[in-house]
User: Fold these one by one.
Assistant:
Number 1:
Amino acid sequence: MIYKLRSVLISQRWGKWLKPLLIPIVLLAMWQAWAPIEGSASGIAPTPSGVVRGFWELTVSGELPSSLFESLTRIGSGFCIAFTIGVSMAICVWYVRLAEYLIDPLIETFRPIAPIAWIPLAILWFGTGTWAAIFIVSYAVFFPVFVNTLAGLQSLDKRLLDAARTLGATKYMMIRDVVLPGALPAIVLGGRLGMGAGWAAIIAAEMTVGSKSGGGASGGIGQMMFIFLSYSLELRYIIVGMITVGCVAYMIDSVFRMVQRRISPWIQTS
Amino acid sequence: MKLVCKNLAMTFLNARSGDRIDALGPVDLAVEAGEFVAVVGPSGCGKSTLLGILAGLIKPTQGEALLDGKLITGPGRDRGVCFQDYALFPWMSVLENIAFGLKAQGMGKEERESHAKQLILRVGLVGFETRYPHELSGGMRQRCALARVLAVDPQVLLMDEPMAALDAQTRQLMQDDLLNVWAVGEQKKTVIYITHSIDEAVYLADRIIVMSARPGLIKADILNDFDRPRNEIRTMPAYAEQINRIWSLIKNDAIQAMTK
Amino acid sequence: MGLPELPEKVKEAQIVSHFATARRVTVRYIFSLGCFILLWHLTASYVGKPNTLPSPGVVGLQAIEVIGSGELLSHTASTLRRLVVGFAIACFVGIPFGLLFGLSKSLEAYTTPLIEALRPISGIAWIPLALFVLGIGEELPHFIIFFGALFPIILNSADAARMTDVNLLNAARTLGASRWLIMKEVVLPSALPMIFVGLRLGLGVGWMGVIASELIGAPSGLGYMIEWNRTMLMSSRVLVGVFTIGLIGYLMSLLLNFVARKSTPWWGGWSRRDL
């Protein structure tokens, strides 16, 4: 029967569609079949159908949308703060040599320290609320944005700057029409990587807060997942949370990639 | 005298290793208004450095360069530069690239776009106004770069091997285009044209400066006053003789440069 | 042609030229960090809450205490042990699979959707589920590290295999090499630099993963240490832990880079800033 399946896959035109779906379908089927067997013993094993139901239930009850909204607001604010600071500092470091000497070593010292490591301190300083989360997100977003913006500025073709000067461009025009557009692809890349890092950081931060303070003010997706773990043992809700985290990460990345493509059609995006 | 170089020299200093490179000079040069001067020489003879100094992008370590008697201290609209790889702004369309210099002068959008369109007509890029540089062929980019420089109407044109990246056939056509554009107008522009190609120099220029290997000194200053228009001179024996004369001046230096 | 002329005040130019030579890079670092520590000290004195923002001096003293008592070492060892195990498994699974994935179009067609679906779910998001299934113990960090590091390793190995120069492959085939020999002598060496890039990324993710899992559910390790000290309001020790985390991460990258450079001496692509 396997050979028949294989020949179908290779020969038929719709076999092409079936190929990528084959393994996921098989796995899902196995999971669905396995769960009741396992579940009858412990009674709490999640099934794919249970997860789908979970999505529905959480959306209807409003918990999923509100947590999601909370997390997204936090990452949005953190991103805006860190992006502004990161780009400005990169321009500063690029333009003023002394700034490079002062700031670069600091950046290189703090960059290896993962944002997660700052969570306890952030909680100590800002409490278990939104500001701690925004702090962690900003920290996470800052470094990719800064590093990539600086790299973009440094790799600007010097001849383009020369050409602009020989055409009589004013300093203001140089920055607005030559430097920024030239560095823009790198800046967008930095934004994309920063958002990726920021999203992972916010989930981690929320989870840590959730595991400590347990309950309290609505704390985003991360905390939601932990509350379900600690209080209700509804595993399928946890899985719903995980899938949501993955989907949002994917969507954020896609949006940035789209922006990348539109801004710099002359560059290939990986 | 339009352009004067007095005792001009350039030494590059490598901050890290402490090496000194005597790239150019000392050089004395005088160019009249409306002259088309070609500069040829072996690799590394400082031709691009000379152009950079005249453009105001490099500060010489010795001597001075003067335009109309005034010291050249920085880049400006009066000396237009055509770079070797065109240096077109990739994020601007052809029209926007050409209009850039006019925008720098504060010209309004409609006015500079109509100006730019006139130049597009002049260099033969009609229909490509909204295209981006990466969509253009080499010859078209060359024309766009030329149009961009002409838009600001400089008195002097400094060209650094502008045709080097073009294939031989396009190059011949572009050379004629360049001469046509240069010859038009009440006042012919002064042109300093750097090239590796001796036959290109002989085809285009009124006067050919031959430079020696590093440190770049002026080895010879040769008059090249064939009649214009020059479409037919490639078949004349005098053309080949001139090329040979210049090549014999450069040959030894070129061999040295290759084996160094 | 020349560089853009930037306006610099004379005094600044003097300071700049003083720092210009390469040998002075370490001096620059010391100067910059020194300024930072000074600023830190001033801020801490101004704020005056030693439990929230300890001064650098206090942090230094605590660091010495913690190192001397062996506490720091034991925590670091626990964390590193977990990292090594999880990362090693990720390598053993990820590199071969990644190479095959890059070379075989059919394998790619079958497994891409699965990989693309699981990849965006960061390793950290697995913690609640894994915590339930595995409980608090050594398996939790192992799993999180494994899962986090797996994807960069697989994807980079796949890219590396895919980008093997076709000319080299053809040359090997015309010289009569078997498929196995080609894999071993051509594909693998040529893929090594990029595999190492994947390892570097995976190590970074894995490092974050182990700290995160320790923060949430582990009885030892650096993550546990900083969290425990936070509950004790010993923020100076928290900072010691934080800086240790950064330092160890940095040293590991250095080590990995060193190994990478030594095993691919023919590749000219390594730069000083490959960290």
Number 2:
Amino acid sequence: MTDETRNPEAEPQAAATGAGEERTDMSITTATNTVMPNAAAGDSETMPSDTASGIDALGALDALNSLHELNSDRDRMAKRSEHGMRAMCIHLSLLYIPGVLAYWSIGLMFGGRFVSDIAYIVTMTALVLIVLSPLLLIARYRKTTGMPAFATNSAKRAAFRDRRFFAAYLTSIIAQLLLPWTGFAWGFIGGNWIGAIVLAVLTALAIYGLERWHIREWTRVSRLPVAPEEDPHAR
Amino acid sequence: MPDKSNDSPIEPKFDETIHAPVRLRICGMLDAYDKLRFDALRDTLDVSDAVCSKHLKTLADHGYVTLSKKAERGSGKGYKVTWASFTDAGRAAFQAHVAALKQIVAGG
């Protein structure tokens, strides 16, 4: 790594990390007492009950802080992911304009409006490039955010159990697969180019709206806390 | 709310390696996103390269994380970018550790 990328607050942070490790030592003892009470049964017998409960409270606070940190990180990462996905969403939607026009041309061909080898080759080449271009968007997303575009981990699978997220995901995918075919249908019945452009713009807008919904839902689900935060002193 | 704890009961187990604050946060992020680039981890943790690298190495030494270096376009000639991904052992240990933390908070 270069010096330019180095965090100027490295020393205090490193010191903080060291302090964190010391904190770990303290909490391990406490945590062991709590999670494995048999292991520390002898110690707790010799300890005054007030002191023991104080150490327990400190252990609980330490654990609560750790869970709070995990929740905060989830929030930060969700924002980072959302930012990258939004940028990708705009470009993806714009791709549907030439995409629908290419489908319209193919519709015209299948409808017997024009048959030409050159037109066929040009249209098919354009369509292949349009279909493959999302790969560039995915690569760009990875480069911008440092995250994989398609997480296949258990957290992602768990997100599908959320009804709202699942509905947004499914609707968005179905729209992306089916809406371009309206261009094909328009071409097949011999629709003119003005109609094709209007259709392409409407399709892009619809997909943009649905993708934004999908991104909002994904952000909501990925921001859900690891554990609900409770104050141990509340009891 | 999707709750992974419903999949199968997780045995709470306190893990000293994971509990260090920076390592716990690294594990939390990897649990959510599976695989992350070094700079994404470093920026989110708001720590220096050295600190982030040290903790990743500790996790890798314990078999919790796999580190891979890949050359990326635009990152400079011969410059490789590190990606960290969770191993199955790492994920299991993290989930058991979080369950232990929850148990501690609950006073169990």
